[in-house]
């Protein structure tokens, strides 16, 4: 049961559909997701061009996935904060700013990891 509902949990397949719907909504409504997907696509193209070894591929894929994950969580948190506090409130701003900062930190670290992986693949160190 879903708390506060008379309905049963959605089926496994329906849960996947809900997840895909969430990704679609984020892509349609959030500029940052589009930017991050674009940068991720560039990273994957560069990875293919450099013919990275399997471990390096895993590192790049994980960095891309973690950044997208963080942005999706940030987007969800912002929606919940807006629902709970439609008026401007210092704590709502604080929560949203800290969530955005977590995406920023992860994005910068992922970019640095990408630079290390790519520079190694190019034989620069």
TrEMBL record:
Record-linked CDD domains: UDPK_IM_like
The entry's keywords: ATP-binding, Cell membrane, Kinase, Lipid biosynthesis, Lipid metabolism, Membrane, Nucleotide-binding, Phospholipid biosynthesis, Phospholipid metabolism, Transferase, Transmembrane, Transmembrane helix
InterPro entries linked: DAGK (IPR000829), DAGK_sf (IPR036945), UDPK (IPR033717)
Chief location: membrane
GO MF entry, a single one: kinase activity
UniProt keyword ATP-binding present: yes
Location(s), subcellular: Cell membrane
Signal peptide: none
KW Kinase (keyword) present: yes
Membrane topology: Multi-pass membrane protein
TM stretches of this protein: 35-52, 98-122
Domain of life from the UniProt record: Bacteria
Family designation: Belongs to the bacterial diacylglycerol kinase family.
Protein name: Diacylglycerol kinase family protein
Organism in which the protein naturally occurs: Collinsella ureilytica
Record lineage: Bacteria, Bacillati, Actinomycetota, Coriobacteriia, Coriobacteriales
């Amino acid at each position: 049961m879903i708390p506060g509902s008379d309905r049963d949990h959605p089926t496994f397949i329906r849960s996947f559909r809900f997840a895909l719907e969430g990704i679609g909504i984020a892509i349609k409504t959030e500029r940052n997701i589009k930017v991050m997907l674009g940068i991720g696509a560039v990273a994957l193209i560069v990875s293919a061009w450099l013919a990275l070894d399997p471990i390096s591929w895993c590192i790049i894929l994980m960095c891309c996935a973690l950044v997208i994950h963080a942005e999706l969580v940030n987007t969800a948190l912002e929606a919940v904060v807006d629902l709970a506090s439609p008026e401007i409130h210092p704590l709502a701003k604080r929560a949203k700013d800290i969530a955005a900062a977590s995406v920023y930190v992860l994005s910068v670290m992922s970019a640095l990891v990408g630079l290390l992986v790519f520079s190694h693949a190019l034989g620069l160190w």
